[in-house]
Design brief:
Elements: H1 6-20, H2 29-35, H3 40-68, H4 70-89, H5 94-122, H6 127-153, H7 159-178, H8 193-197, H9 201-223, H10 225-232, H11 236-264, H12 267-287, H13 292-320, H14 325-351, H15 360-378, H16 380-383, H17 393-404
Helix pairs in contact: 1-5, 1-6, 1-7, 2-3, 3-4, 3-5, 3-14, 4-5, 4-7, 5-6, 6-11, 6-17, 9-13, 9-14, 9-15, 11-13, 12-13, 12-15, 13-14, 13-17, 14-15
């Protein structure tokens, strides 16, 4: 990695910042709700608008980049994140932040969908080293996001938004200055290609699995700051440290543990094992929602399981069809983000203001994960196509990157 060019390092730095956006707002959700006099349901819409627009945008990212090139797509994505993160920091109401988070999601979709191909194309020290660098950037971003959110959020809830805007502006300048002209040949992709891809039986079933899986995922990620803050009186920094542990756990298992498992058993078997374990983790979280130590342990343990799920599920998507990987990933991501968009406000509505109901969202999330498991088990014949041998380094990194883009 030390021999990589400045171009590669510039994009890798931008990747770290982009992936930080996944958990950045987690530690400041209670503070936003308190200072802007917003309900938990309104505050959870910060996730919903971001994820919903990201999902819709995934349907067009391959169409855009196939026409204007990778560098322009990266820069447009970065510019949108800079503008909308700054606007969110200056917002006077929770509803304006919700709107600006939607624009942030559009920028993030454009950037993340193009970043890996750009790093590999600009690599001067070999593709393998470039892939390792991309995976390292991904892991750092997922882990640092909540921690930075907690640190800056302990000063003001506006801090994480200002910080993201500044860091992305630096990344924008670095890519303009260091990334060379995009000379790669372009093969235009039809706008309808991702929607048509969902007609494929295996890909369509995987998208349904991902939809129900993401309800469980984002119940744990987006709702947990409220019971933790309510019962344990955790500060933004305390919440940031909790989800820093979650991010580190997720990054470790997605990069190292998932490939080990898929070398020893089929992908569908891994999915069928991990989904009920995740459901059990959420059941424990719901049963002990008033005990801070147990809830924190469930968050970190959930990160370990989520890392495996993200990688294996997205690898399965990569193997499900003969379609271009960008098309298959776009189709699958558009559906899975619907689950992510629905889960946070649904959890807040289920919990309400009654402390006795705070565990209910976790039980519903666990039920959703069991539905995903049933779809896996009943569709083993359809999904047999995904149980191929291990992928090469580039394919594995593409899968990991697509899996973490949520």
């Amino acid at each position: 990695m030390a021999r990589q060019s400045k171009q590669v390092w510039a994009v890798a730095f931008a990747c770290v910042v982009a992936f930080m956006g996944i958990g950045l707002v987690d530690p400041i959700l209670p503070a936003i709700a308190s200072e802007l006099k917003a309900t938990p349901t309104e505050t959870e819409l910060l996730f919903t608008s971001y994820l919903f627009i990201t999902g819709v945008a995934m349907l067009i990212t391959s169409w855009v980049s196939s026409r204007i090139g990778a560098k322009r797509t990266l820069l447009i994505g970065l510019a949108l994140i800079v503008a909308f993160a700054l606007a969110a920091a200056l917002s006077p109401t929770v509803w304006s932040i919700i709107g600006f988070r939607a624009g942030w999601g559009l920028g993030n979709a454009l950037f993340i969908s193009t970043a890996l191909a750009t790093i590999v194309g600009a690599a001067s020290g070999g593709t393998s080293a470039a892939i390792i660098l991309y995976e390292a950037a991904l892991g750092l971003g997922i882990a640092i996001g909540p921690l930075l959110g907690g640190l800056l959020g302990s000063i003001s809830w506006r801090g994480p938004f200002f910080g993201t805007s500044i860091l992305m502006a630096i990344a924008f300048v670095a890519i303009v200055a260091l990334l060379g002209t995009d000379t790669a040949a372009r093969t235009p992709i039809r706008l309808s290609a991702p929607l048509r891809a969902l007609r494929h039986p295996a890909l369509g079933r995987l998208a349904i699995i991902a939809l129900f899986y993401n309800i469980g995922f984002f119940t744990l990620l987006a709702f947990t700051p409220f019971p933790l803050q309510r019962f344990a009186h955790q500060t933004a920094l305390g919440l940031g440290l909790t989800f820093f542990g979650w991010g580190v756990a997720l990054a470790v298992t997605s990069v190292w543990v998932a490939p080990l498992l898929t070398r020893r058993m089929s992908r569908t078997t891994v999915l069928a094992i991990i989904l009920p374990l995740l459901a059990a983790d959420l059941v424990v979280a719901g049963a002990f929602v008033t005990t801070a130590a147990v809830l924190i342990a469930c968050v970190v343990a959930g990160g370990l399981l989520l890392g495996v799920m993200n990688t294996v599920l997205t690898e399965s998507v990569m193997e499900a069809t003969e379609l271009p990987r960008t098309v298959a990933s776009s189709a699958y991501s558009a559906v899975r983000f619907i689950g992510g968009a629905v889960a946070p406000p649904l959890a807040a509505v289920l919990a309400g203001s009654d402390l006795a109901r705070a565990g209910l969202p976790y039980f519903v999330g666990a039920a959703s994960l069991l539905v995903a498991m049933i779809v896996v088990i009943t569709g083993r014949r359809t999904l047999a196509v995904v149980n191929t041998g291990p992928e090469d380094a580039l394919e594995e990194a593409e899968a990991i990157g697509a899996g973490e883009a949520a």
